[in-house]
Design brief:
Layout lengths: L4 H10 L3 H7 L2 H4 L6 H7 L18 H14 L1 H24 L3 H11 L3 E3 L16 E4 L5 E10 L7 E9 L6 E9 L5 E4 L13 E10 L4 E3 L7 H34 L5 H26 L4 H30 L1 H6 L1 H10 L9 H12 L8
Parallel strand pairs: 1-4
Antiparallel strand pairs: 2-3, 3-7, 4-5, 5-8, 6-7
Helix pairs in contact: 1-5, 5-6, 5-8, 5-9, 6-8, 8-9, 8-10, 8-12, 9-10, 10-12
């Protein structure tokens, strides 16, 4: 079948063997807590996907990344959603290193070399906050370490993570004020605990639990301090972070919908008009995602790129909803009753609307942006 062929070809090229491994497992095994999908992802070098090649990574570009996410999501929605947060964290470190030329490269090499999984404790667009805005509280310890407290609910990869990345305001080394930093917190740190949070069976395999920090000590070498005066400054880092987040997450949920569409395309009794309509709906979304990803490689960025990514994501929500409804109707009531995966995939696609920033919160900001104002994140 030509549908999803390009995406799965890129997946096989960059993470060889992962697609075959995922198809070997029953879908319900991949989608439950303690899923074997994360170990399979590590074994094929998945954590290194967005680490630049000069830092021992795979060095996938944005187009390859969104194709990989769509292909993975068509096999395991939970794995795709969880690893989107890992890739987002890695992309943020890459952007920070490009802006500051700091020591972030050491962590990036560690991710690639040791297959480290990064969970994200960033704000992700909470009301009044940017992705890199402080989400944790910090205090200075007498031994020079920083003690960090706070929580992230939900936090994907909560039980499989090696490191938690979180934004925090820390004292300047000379004691004269504060600055923002990204804290890299080992999962086995004293004072860090994981608590149950996710109660729905949908996407349970993503391990989206609560991560709670109670005065967790973080040494200086695990703090990535960000200088607001560095090239690009904080605004460009925040914008780049949101941009990667929206593209990767849109491609992920498109992949979940594509898994349903693939069933419809294999069903001989479904009218060709319905099958063609599904392909048009979903491939149009992928074309939009890839279009923005292609432009990123040519220097497209800043608020213009972020606005385009948001427009693409909100349009995708509508297209995916229409496509999923068509899929469920086309497959019929007996398929819905007899095959739990149909209802599962359909339910999973609803979660795209819950990822920040919500369409309702961004409505005024997008209207103002296209009327000529600067883009602000609600």
């Amino acid at each position: 079948m030509r549908f999803l062929r390009h995406e799965r070809a890129v997946l096989d090229e960059l993470l060889p063997g992962l697609d075959d491994t995922l198809t070997d497992y029953p879908w319900e095994v991949l989608e439950r807590p303690e899923s074997p999908a994360f170990e399979a992802f590590r074994k094929v070098g998945g954590p290194a996907l967005l680490v630049p090649s000069e830092h021992s990574g795979t060095g996938a570009d944005a187009v390859q990344a969104v194709r990989v996410q769509r292909a993975v999501a068509s096999r395991s929605p939970s794995l795709a959603v969880a690893t989107t947060m890992h890739h987002f964290s890695v992309a943020g470190l890459v952007e920070t290193h490009r802006a500051t030329q700091g020591l972030e490269w050491m962590l990036l090499e560690g991710v690639a070399r040791d297959g480290l999984l990064l969970a994200s404790g960033f704000a992700e667009g909470q009301p009044g906050r940017h992705i890199l805005s402080p989400t944790m509280r910090a205090e200075q310890a007498q031994d020079g370490q920083i003690l960090i407290s706070g929580s992230k609910r939900p936090c994907s990869l909560a039980r499989s993570m090696d490191l938690l990345t979180a934004s925090v305001t820390v004292p300047l080394p000379d004691g004269g004020g504060t600055q923002m930093a990204v804290a890299l917190i080992p999962a086995d740190s004293h004072g860090l605990r994981v608590e149950p949070f996710w109660r729905t069976p949908l996407l349970a395999g993503a391990e989206s639990e609560a991560v709670v920090l109670d005065r967790v000590p973080v040494p200086e070498d695990l703090l990535v301090r960000i200088d607001p005066g560095a090239a690009g400054g904080l605004d460009s880092l925040q914008t780049a972070g949101f941009l990667w987040f929206e593209l990767l997450m849109t491609a992920t949920y498109l992949g979940v919908a594509s898994a349903l569409a693939e069933r419809v395309l294999r069903a001989d009794r479904v009218p060709v008009t319905e099958q063609a309509a599904l392909v048009v709906e979903l491939e149009a979304v992928m074309g939009s995602v890839e279009g923005i990803a292609h432009r990123l490689g040519a220097g497209f960025g800043g608020q213009e790129a972020l606005a385009a990514a948001l427009v693409c994501r909100y349009a995708a929500q509508d297209s995916i909803a229409r496509a999923v409804q068509r899929c469920v109707e086309s497959l019929g009531g007996m398929a819905f009753i007899s095959d739990p995966q149909v209802a599962y995939l359909a339910g999973c696609t609803q979660a795209l609307a819950f990822h920040p920033p919500s369409r309702s919160r961004m409505a005024g900001a997008l209207r103002d942006y296209f009327a000529g104002a600067a883009l602000t994140m609600a």
